[in-house]
Amino acid sequence: MTHSSSSNLTSQQTNSRRLVLVMIGIFASGAIVGGATTRAVSRYQWRMAMKNPASLASRISPQLVSTIGLHDEQLDRVESLINMRYDRMEALRAETYPLQLAEFDQLCSEIDNELDSTQRAKWATLVSRLKNEYLPLPPVAPPTADFIFKNFDANYDDALESAELPPPMWMRVRNADSDGDSKVTRSEFESVRSYISP
Q: What are the tens digits of pLDDT across the range 19-68?
């Protein structure tokens, strides 16, 4: 083997190695971009679902039909159940959102007290991002008295009792019981609705 042919072989091996490294780099960058894109799309879809709750059932219906094989009659009933339960979850979210926000703000304030001035500026930027990414969105609208009574007045007596409401909600609603009968009527509820709603 001559020096020239040995040099060509080494050059070809070097070029082959470079090509393999370039291909690995392209594959890795594609995987990273694909993963980041999937995450961004998922986050966008979640945010859109939270901002447009009325369309929840219609957005997941195609998945239910293709995955489970629901027929039309089942789909109608399932969509009705989704809408009803989502409305109730939304009412609960309206109740708990201010509490979650207050806890988050308290946590941020306590951490802020542990930082120096340079760290506080960076912390403020980070807190803003964390709040947008991890806290639930505020409820779509405060629940109306009609909504609350329709969804929580289990015995249909047009009054709310402690057993009919989630405990945090009852803690706020019970203050409207002006006659001390341990029930909150619709008119009592309406008189303090601005206090009850976030």
A: 878 788 787 777 787 777 777 666 666 565 555 556 667 777 787 788 88
In a domain, 84, yes or no: no
SS3 145: helix
- C-beta of residue 97 within 8 angstroms of C-beta of residue 139: yes
12 in a domain, yes or no? yes
Residue 31: inside a domain: yes
Contact indicator for 135, 108 with CB cutoff of 8 Å: no
* 56 in a structural domain: no
Give the Cα separation of 167 and 185 in Å (integer): 17
* Amino acid identity at 90: E
Residue 45 domain boundaries = 1-51
Residue type, 113: N
Whether pTM exceeds 0.85: no
Cα 112–Cα 114–Cα 118 angle in degrees, nearest 5: 70
76-104 tens-digit pLDDT: 888 888 877 777 777 777 777 777 888 88
